[in-house]
Write a structure and sequence with these properties.
Helix content: over 70%
Strand order of the largest sheet: 1-2
Order of helices and strands: HHHHHHHHHHHHHEEHH
CATH superfamily of the largest domain: MetI-like
CATH topology of the largest domain: MetI-like fold
Radius of gyration: 25 Å
Number of helices: 15
CATH architecture of the largest domain: Orthogonal Bundle
Number of domains: 2
Structural class: mainly alpha
Distance between the termini: 43 Å
Shape: globular
Largest sheet: 2 strands, antiparallel
Strand content: under 5%
């Protein structure tokens, strides 16, 4: 009887597999291949162009050693011993991104837990809507107010000034991710700790926080990526001493045109750190973003 039931369950699956014609499979693989080429082409173009001279970068050459002779001139200029501008910009980007990520993650975790566990007179939904409004506003609309505030605080063209600005715009992501996680967090676990004599602070630090590691990791990576890619405020608030690497990428455009070799090299350098970081914590990101997806 068990064998008959198993065969009955497998019959629809086999019918679907047999019903798919060879033509449908070919079209599916063609569509997948086109999607992969579409996604990977910018990256492949950047890798190839980074080994070209400026003159070769303007020519439609693709195959190295056959259509053009690869050169490491662009990489030497960017990563060589004399590349002080690159080193300074990368150091600024790392400091700004880490600082904004730490502040946004800490504040977002505390705020998310408060919104998930407590009810406020003005309404939790109103608070969440106000948090989201920080992302709905066009960033350029707040550029001048931020500039005036930082000017009054004497933080123009400083790394701490850009950390505060980036924290403001990445904080909503951390709050929403952590609120959704804690809203889906079982109340019974905290109630058991409360019965054992733990106070609310101990419950948060010793029970909720350790179990929230995947969500915290996901929020931190997203905040880091947004802070790392920020350019608008950096171009106005910190165009000299505290300029991040995104400002350096945009500076490849000169009066003689865009230096595509430098642009491709700097683009690859700019995406390396976020991509490598994401690969190391990929499973935490997927788990953290999936938690709280049903119950909000």
């Amino acid at each position: 009887m068990a064998t008959l039931k198993k065969e009955a369950v497998m019959q629809p699956v086999r019918a679907v597999q047999i019903g798919r014609s060879p033509l449908a499979r070919i079209l599916l693989w063609v569509a997948v291949l086109m999607a992969v080429i579409w996604v990977l082409y910018p990256f492949v173009w950047a890798v190839i162009t980074s080994f070209k001279t400026q003159r070769e970068a303007l020519e439609p050459t693709i195959v190295p050693f056959l259509q053009f002779q690869p050169s490491a001139e662009n990489w030497s200029a960017e990563l060589g011993l004399g590349a002080r501008e690159t080193t300074l910009a990368l150091g600024n980007s790392i400091a700004i991104s880490i600082g904004a990520t730490v502040l946004a993650t800490v504040l977002g975790t505390l705020t998310g837990y408060a919104l998930a566990r407590f009810r406020y007179g003005i309404g939790n939904r109103n608070i969440v809507s106000w948090v989201l409004s920080q992302r709905f506003l066009p960033p350029v609309a707040t550029l001048i107010p931020f500039f005036l505030v930082l000017q009054r605080l004497q933080m123009i063209d400083t790394v701490p000034g850009l950390i505060l600005v980036n924290t403001t715009f990445t904080l909503p992501f951390a709050i929403l991710i952590m609120r959704d996680f804690f809203a889906d967090f079982p109340d019974e676990i905290e109630e058991a700790a409360l019965v054992d004599g733990a106070n609310p602070l101990q419950i948060f630090l010793r029970v909720a926080l350790p179990l929230a590691t995947p969500a915290i990791t996901a929020a931190a990576i997203i905040c880091f990526a947004f802070a790392w890619n920020e350019y608008l405020f950096a171009s106005v608030i910190a165009p000299k001493d505290a300029k991040p690497y995104t400002f350096l990428v945009a500076s490849t455009s000169t009066v003689r045109g865009v230096h595509f070799g430098y642009l491709a090299t700097r683009m690859l350098i700019a995406i390396t750190l976020p991509v490598v970081l994401s690969l190391f914590v990929q499973r935490y990101i997927v788990r953290g973003l999936s938690l709280g997806a049903v119950k909000g």
